[in-house]
Every structure is written in C-alpha cells, then in structure tokens.
Amino acid sequence: MRLLPALLLPVVLGLVHPVFARQASPSDTTLEAAHRSRLALLPIVFSSPDTRLALGVLPQYIFYTAPGTRPSNLRADIYYTRNKQFNVLLSPSVWLPGDRWQLAGKFRLRKWPTNYVGIAPEAGSAPEEEFTERMFSGAAEVLRQLGPRAWVGASWFVRWGDITDLDPANGALSDGSVPGSGRSRAAGIGVVATLDDREHVVMPRSGAIYRVHAQIHGPALGSEATFTSLTLDLRRYVTIAGPVHAAVQALFTASTGDVPFRVLPGVGEAVRGYPGTQYIGRQRWALQAEIRAIPVWWRLGFAVFAGMGDVADRVGDFRFDDVHFAVGAGIRVLMFPAERITIRQDFAFAPGAGGDYLDLNEAF
C-alpha cells in the first residue's frame, strides 16, 4: 500500500487541525477543559495494485461519562476503493462513572484483498496465494472494577468469513487443507483480567497495564472449530525527561486446537514493518519498545521504535535464529494536548519487508 501524501498529511492537518478536529461539547464555560468532548477526523488517500485508488476516514470521538472518570472514545476506520472493496471497523471503549465498569468492543465488516503465505512452521515461506475475504467479526468485553487498579470481566467473540477469488485456484486454500479456508465460522467466550495504573489511557507517560485474556471456542458456542487461546499483554510507560517518555510492550499468545488461519496471531499485529498475514502461527511472542518526544516544538514531535517477534506451532519450537526484527521512526502531531490525541506517521524497516503507517493515536 502506498500513502499518496503520507509524509505531509500529519503536518498539514496539524497546521489546520481546527478544521478537522472540533470541540463537540455543549457551550459551558464552567466545564473543565480536560472534560470536554472532542471529535478528531483524519482523512486518508492511498493506492495499491489490488485496490487502485482508495479513500478512507478515521473519526474518533472522545467524551466523559462523568467528571473524574477516564475518557471514553468511539473510534471508526472506514475505507473504500475503486475496486469496490471496503473495510469498516468500529471500536468503542466506554468508562462508566467512577471507572467501575468498562465496556469495549471491535466490530468489523469488510471485503478486502489479502494473501496467504503459510502457517508456522512454514509461515512466510509457503507459495503466496491471493484471495478476497468477505467477513464480519464482533468482539465485546464487560469489565468490573475490583480495586483501585484491578478490573475483571467477560469477553465474547464471533467471526463469519468467506474466501473467494483464489489465485492460484489450486493452492492450499482451495483444497480445504488449511483450517478456516472457504466459508468459516468461529465463536467463543472468555475471561479478562487487567491491572492498570496508567496516568492516562490514550497516551500514558507513566504507569503500566497488565492484561490476561483467555477464550474458548467450540460448537456449543456456534463455532465450527474447537480451539482455545490465551494472551498476555504487558505494557510499561516511563517518563524520561520533560515530554520524552518510553513505552515497552511484551505480547504472548498461546493457542490450541484447529484455529482458523484468519484468527491466528501474527508478528505484524505488534511489530510494525511486517504484514499481518506474513508470519502467523498458533504460538506468538512479540516485544517492542518506543521512545516518544511529544511535543518537541509547538504540537510537533517524533518517535523512534524497534520490535521483534516470532511464531511457532508449539512453544518448544521457538528458535532465536528465527526471530524477525524491525526498526523505525515517525513524526507526531498533537491534536488535543489535554486528551493527548496524536496523528502519527511511522516508517518501519525490516529484512525483506517494511511499511508506512498513518493513524490516530500511538501504536500501544
């Protein structure tokens, strides 16, 4: 994918951000600035051989359910291409008064070209197969606060997919040997537990969040396949000096059973520079670190980052010489200082891969 004015968009939007980002709260002079609702809007234009010209918009609405409560947000990612492909992702996250409850979810509807290059241990090395995916997925979580830093709750997941337009037509996906090829259906429920003392939920400069998520999927829940997953997501944030701070994330996912290949975890989900479909497997670990200086001058800042990770069929199959590395840097535009909403443009470099990323908010 090639972003047409990718490098200039953050700077341009930063200079004219009142046009694209407006205060959406009622006129109330007694309302503290930190508790005003905000609407950010980022337009995107890109092209690729599979999509031709494509347009997108990333709106994000920040609001508060009560004074002193963490900021809630409603985020959307919407794309449409000249080839009549589309991707719509809705990501709500709502904190109820007093932070006693958190409601979160991700709901996606898409018709989009992608590819398959194998599952670990042959991840990234199998003959490439291109296809178009039509799918709907939904995921939701309800968490209840148990203490000053602890939340526990339940999760739900469902995904319906259909793979068409296979090229070549006689590959591994067409003969049904890959779990989840053709039409597939997955559904599951799970439990979630978090320890969270971040001083800010959008772009923390100190504190940590440790998250454990376990799910089961099976016919009794509406899934064609039976499988389980366990994910550990550990993040730590440290202020270095002034606007400079560091962020570190360690991610590990362990899966068992016949996991559909489009549900398998991948290195590219955490390590910028790799496509999400290139290295996938039932077991995945990833580590990334980032130094952010936001802002350095006016609303402009920058970040440098590095990441590494690997996938395997079994935990005992991980090997250090198979680790995939990436490094990168990016620029930032701080749209709303109180809410720490940023536009980020990142450039990642990896052996045999790489990419650029234009988005709202930090990567983690």
Please provide a written account of the structure:
There is one protein chain. The protein has 364 residues and is mostly beta strands. The protein has 2 helices and 18 strands. The chain has an 18-stranded antiparallel beta sheet that branches. β17 and β18 form a beta hairpin. The longest helix has 7 residues. It is globular, with a radius of gyration of 21 Å. It starts with a strand and ends with a strand.
Number of H/I helices = 2
Level-2 CATH architecture = Beta Barrel
Within CATH, the superfamily carries the name: membrane protein fhac: a member of the omp85/tpsb transporter family
Distance between the termini: 22 Å
Task: Report Rg.
Answer: 21 Å
Overall geometry comes to globular
The major pleated sheet works out as: 18 strands, antiparallel
Strand content: over 45%
Helix content: under 10%
CATH topology: Porin
Succession of helices and strands: EHHEEEEEEEEEEEEEEEEE
Average pLDDT, rounded to a whole number, is 89
Q: Helices and strands in order, then pairings?
A:
Elements: E1 2-3, H1 9-15, H2 17-20, E2 21-23, E3 38-48, E4 52-63, E5 72-81, E6 86-95, E7 101-116, E8 129-145, E9 150-167, E10 183-196, E11 207-217, E12 227-241, E13 244-257, E14 283-297, E15 300-312, E16 324-336, E17 341-350, E18 353-360
Antiparallel strand pairs: 1-3, 2-3, 3-4, 4-5, 5-6, 6-7, 7-8, 8-9, 9-10, 10-11, 11-12, 12-13, 13-14, 14-15, 15-16, 16-17, 17-18
